Amino acid sequence: xxxxxxxxxxxxxxxxxFSALVVLTLALGIGANSAIFSVVNGVLLRSLPYANxxxxxxxxxxxxxxxxxxxxxxxxxxxxxxQSVFDHMAAYVNLAFTLTERGDAERVSGDAAxxxxxxxxxxxxxxxxxxxxxxxRPTHRLVMLNQRYWRKRFGADxxxxxxxxxxxxxxxxxxxxxxxxxxxxxQADIWTLGLDGVPESPFGADRHLEKERGAGYLNVxxxxxxxVTLGRARSEMQTISHRLAVQYPSENAGxxxxxxxxxxxMVRDSRTPLILLLCAVGLVLVIACANIANLLLTRSTARQxxxxxxxxxxADRGRLIRQMLTESVLLAVIxxxxxxxxxxxxxxxxxxxxxxxxxxLNPVRIDGGVLAFTFAIALLCGLVFGMAPALxxxxxxxxxxxxxxxxxxxxxxxxxxxxxxxSQVALSMLLLVGSGLLIRSLMQLQEVPPGYDTQHVMTVSxxxxxxxxxxxxxxxxxxxxxxxxNAPGVVAAGAVFPLPLSSGSAGAGFAIEGRQRDEDRAFHSxxxxxxxxxxxxxxxxxIAGRNFxxxxxxxxxxxxxxxxxxxxxxxxxxxxLGHRLKLAEDPADSAAWSTIVGVVGDVHIEGxxxxxxxxxxxxxxxxxxxxxxxxxxxxxxxxxxLPTIRREVAALxxxxxxxxxxxxxxxxxxxxxxxxxxxxxxxxxxxxALILAAIGIYGVISFSVTQRTREIGVxxxxxxxxxxxxxxxxxxxxxxxxxxxxxxxxxxxxxTRIMKSMLFGVTATxxxxxxxxxxxxxxxxxxxxxxxxxRATRVSPMVALRGE
Length: 804
Description:
Helices cover 49% and strands 16% of the residues. It is of the alpha+beta class. Strands 12, 13, 14, 15, 16, 17, 18, 19, 20, 21, 22 and 23 form a twelve-stranded mixed β-sheet that branches. Strands 1, 2, 3, 4, 5, 6, 7, 8, 9, 10 and 11 form an eleven-stranded mixed β-sheet that branches. Helix 2 runs antiparallel to helix 9, helix 9 packs antiparallel against helix 14 and helix 21 runs parallel beside helix 24. The chain starts with a helix and ends with a helix.
């Protein structure tokens, strides 16, 4: 093997141009595979950073068509006390906290969690202790710190445990610091524990736990006991659901539960796109290997006499194959090493493109798994693209091969090279059709009107203190929006929850006056809290009725506004104006009736790829909500109003930070981040495949022209015109290309069906894509054939015959 290796190195040094071309082609193919595999490895393959992650499940509430609802506090406590399948069952809700201790106010992302939160994830703290206690429950609020945040904010102070932090104007005692590498599913900086051990409600201090059974806001995770199957856990949780539905029919009628492994829940939207990208980049590598096999077949012609002499002096066929494979594997290893370097440089831009949802826990990086993958595919590539040339070259006829001018075995190699070209074109066709469908889908998605004017709009999240009373909450936003309305450069200012296309949302059941209770149980809508000027600030049109006003405050007649989708769904044959609703599924509930006073245009809350859902708008002055987003429409660039916003917020509440500002155009961009990610990458792979396929066609035709120089010279000497020679050579190259296009079209019609879930506004058999792509591929193939064909027309008959 050492002798073979030294000889292979000498042969590569003897042909530096050929070696460089092969190594660069491999580097591009292997580097792209390694880079994409680093994402797949981090998102899909690498274990979650928890103990026994296969026993961790997400527990959802399910009602009607929705199977992934959140839990209310009372329902969570009942499930926890009645279940027997979990070692630990914990709840949490992601909230924004304002830290006003040790310097300026700072916005902190945190999880309000229950006692067993860290035990459910199977992790112990590096410093201090967790929330779970033996004996009496704590009489004060506790906070745990993420190690990443502990080092950043507190300089890794080892004496942090026991100190007091002021979060949302409340004192919390630091209980401990979590170890490096631990992240919750929300990637929180801190975790808090309230006085009652149940995650603090986002509804404010004036809400009581026992009144919140119908209001879901909790995420629930459970660690299954050893030996408990997912099926058994599901069965028991559904039994408890039915029991609570009978006990609390107003809130829980029709409710059940659903369980899914935490890993599956976290990658549910990423699995198919990532597998698609990995398959696509794998096809690019296959095309690269086919190209290199063609190059080796071309090179083997020049080495035919050398290998024949080696065989004549005693080398058997296995020895020749081993030598040829050693050279190809050496090229692959060098190409793989260079590809790994390219992948390392590609990680940073790849991470920038990768949506945040794909990087929740495991970061994208080059680790041992990626190194092993790169080494494995380098060896595999060396064997794949080296085997066919090795078998062809080693099958020599010594007598004929030693005769000068012999063309033995060239016909067989031509057939193999043609087959390789057909496969390259077919695979390129698959990638081009796939990328074409995704490009068309992304264009359709970006053309969806969101329901509001995104230009000149700046948004700032302002979660006021949970302990702030409802009156103070409404007064703060009323004064802030009024001050901003009068500020220079501001056209309109309002506040809303949830901001369209943000991650947060809230929904509730309701009753309609005059309708039977059985029917009322099916009434459910997404809720939105707004200030009067919100609709003008967002550019949402009013269809009928009026907007909220400053007179719609606590003590006045309760009012609501609805979207067109709401009116169409619940009042299809009559106007919605004047009807009365109450946020309770039981019409007999003591909640007040609210009158519909206005209908506004539809907006997309969850995403542009979903139809606008029914929206029920509540006036913030009548229904205080602590987690509001400020929406400001500016006369000029949105960023121009940020200093004004900071100044006005500081004037009313100096401890409230303004550090998370986004334009609505940026929000639109974030909402299409995942389809844009897969579209850009698949398009890049398809373009690379197209280039490689064109090179493959060019190589085959160029080699053929070289081999047929004498024949072309004879033809031209006998009177063949240049146009005839051009047509003959182009026809020879275009035939396998057309065959490849046909095979690729059939394959694309079958393969693109798996992309249905990733397409928006186009079908998997989109006619425009299936027409344009073959035309583009045909033009490229023709150009690749025409260049060597044009060279063939310049062959001088006398020079060709004299050379022979």
